[in-house]
Amino acid sequence: MNQNSIRHHQESVTVKASAEALYDLVSDITRTGEWSPVCTSCWWDDEDSAGQPGAWFTGRNELPHRSWETRSQVVAAERGREFAWVVGGRFVRWGFALTPADDGTILSESWEFLPEGIAMFEEKFGDGADTQIADRTRQALDGIPKTLAAIKRIAESVAGGDARVAKG
After folding, report:
1. CA–CA distances in Å: residue 137 to residues 33, 40, 57, 90, 105
2. What is the mean pLDDT of residues 17-46?
């Protein structure tokens, strides 16, 4: 499939940890730098609303050729089930879904380039939009399995799968 046509992607991994422990891990956006290949750090814009639907956070992203910050809004926060956010409040949706399984939890990470994100790239980059969109798509497709593998490693490194105490 041509990566230019991909606008949504999801991958899953089974983790030997409870859905609640995994949720506590992935919803702690201050730990994102521990597993993301691009986002090196995140912080809540308002600690009072941290982790709740509607809360905003800022993320610092770094690649060899550039670095940038984004603001994202939490759009789903249901402990043990789903944690998701939208970059810029309307451009790209990222999320984690958690499904209990016999041997732990199926952790799924999803990414969707939303129509307003495509339109923003077209406005911002003009004739170069397709190249920029393809680049961001490649980063997402390459990053998701790396992120899932890192989260699995962190969660399973803790006795009993209680990822909350694994902060490192």
Report:
1. 20, 19, 22, 17, 27
2. 96
List CB contacts of 2: < 8 A, sequence separation 6 or more. Answer: none
Please name the residues in contact with 47: beta carbons below 8 A apart, sequence gap of 6 or more: none
User: What mean pLDDT comes out for the span 39-63?
Assistant: 96
The 3-class secondary structure across the chain, one letter per residue, is CCHHHCCEEEEEEEECCCHHHHHHHHCCHHHHHHCCCCEEEEEECCHHHCCCCCCEEEEEEEECCEEEEEEEEEEEEECCCEEEEEECCCCEEEEEEEEEECCEEEEEEEEEECHHHHHHHHHHHHHHHHHHHHHHHHHHHHHHHHHHHHHHHHHHCCHHHCHHHHCC
Report how far residue 165's alpha carbon sits from residue 25's, in angstroms, rounded to the nearest whole number. Answer: 9
